[in-house]
Amino acid sequence: LSERRYDPTTGEWVTFATHRQERTFLPPADSCPLCPDPAGAWDGEIRRPDFDIAVFDNRFPSLRPEPEDPAVAGSELMPVMPARGRCEVVVYAADHGTSLSSLGVGRVRLLLDVWADRYTVLGSEGHAYVLPFENKGEVIGVTLHHPHGQIYAFPDVPPRPLRELSAAARHRARTGRCVECDVVAAEVAGGERVVVAGEHWVAHVPFWARFPYEVRISPREHLPSFAAADAGARDDLARVLVDVLAGLDALFGFEMPYIMGVFAQPTGGSPADAGWDGAWSEISHLHLLISPPYRTATKLKYLAGVESMGGAFMTDVAPEQAAADLRAATARVR
Amino acid sequence: VSADDEDPPAQPPFESPAEDPAEDPVEGLVRDVETMADGRRRITFYSHSSSPATPEGTA
Question: Which of chain B's residues have a Cβ under 8 Å away from the Cβ of A124?
Answer without folding.
Answer: 17, 20-21
